[in-house]
């Protein structure tokens, strides 16, 4: 559990690449721009994308991926002060030329890892007053893990390969 927590902190903070040989360089990177046609940064997560809905993951768009990126990853999470951090979705090995993810779909070749609850795929959030973060990472290589790979391994690989990142945050579930 400590490994999951440590890797989660590194990945979810986006800027917490402490301990990495290139941490100073990574902290200086321009962030990716992340948006959604159905979410506004700082606004609510529509209930369709929560455990009360049936849609699945929200659509996301991103831009400013560095030319040297070899893949893209997405982590959807929240940091519940009482229950601890939860990862609701991990998608990796997305083609770096891809710049959007449609509602309830995966781009060709993308792979989903395990979430905090051990399931593969989008685990819709349920806590109405939490902040839900959708973070897009540009990576300098592929994660190269199998579908359903353990969360700790996936988050560590994403953290080790991150060269740029951006985030869209929903402040609660509507």
Automatic annotation (TrEMBL):
InterPro entries: PEBP, PEBP-like_sf, YbhB_YbcL/LppC-like
One protein family per Pfam: PBP
Recorded family membership: Belongs to the UPF0098 family.
Protein name as annotated: YbhB/YbcL family Raf kinase inhibitor-like protein
